[in-house]
Amino acid sequence: MKKKISQEKLAESLLITRGRYVKYEDGTSEAPYEILKRISQYYGISIDILLCADVRKIKMDDLVKLENNRLLLPVIVNNEGDNLIEIVTQKAKAGYMNGYSDPEYIESLPRISLPFLGPGLHRGFTVDGDSMPPHEDGDVIVAKYIEKLGEVVDGRTYIIMTKNDGIVYKRLNKNKKNLLVVESDESFYTPYEVKASEIEQIWEFKCNLGKKDKKRVNIVPGSIEEMFLELKNDIRRLEREK
Length: 242
Known about the structure:
Elements lengths: L6 H7 L4 H9 L6 H11 L3 H6 L11 E2 L5 E2 L11 E5 L1 H10 L3 H6 L2 E3 L8 E5 L13 E7 L10 E6 L3 E11 L2 E5 L8 E4 L3 E11 L14 H18 L1
Parallel strand pairs: 3-5
Antiparallel strand pairs: 1-2, 3-4, 5-6, 6-11, 7-8, 7-11, 8-9, 9-10
Helix pairs in contact: 1-2
């Protein structure tokens, strides 16, 4: 936000008095939604960045431009031009909900390069315990940022961050225009619905960076009920792949 313009001229562009603008700038008063919207349109920066990040620390020319006046924090590249992927470690995961729009927080995360992923904003999320089945503790799920709800493909898996549930790994289906059905691949977890207004971020699964090298063990179902559940899950997967 480095436009060379006086407070008086800026206030005039925002259709407010200079005194009112000064209160918003120095933090003595909070701007209402309509004023935030005008500031967002004037500078070409999204409202969520205005609210969550200290824009004085961001180089606007490095931000990723999206549709409808949306901007993302920068995609970092190495000397070879490959995108560097931030890894949200188990230790850093607790602060991600509050820090995902803070340039200093994102810059503090470790980074790796995975050139095969291609263009787009990618991020790695480290699995903590059994929180993201079937992925195991310590695995890193690499996922691509999804800008719009309409980009979600039914039956695919995503990292989804909501205000109520935090960061989860689930299979998503669009049920209604502004509603998602969230389902786990583990049959004992009941599917539930999430409103679009509750969603902070969606990341589409791309690959798993696992740590273990072990032979898969075939487990014989211990009951007819378990066998039925496995068959039901197999049918669901086949239907999704059609």
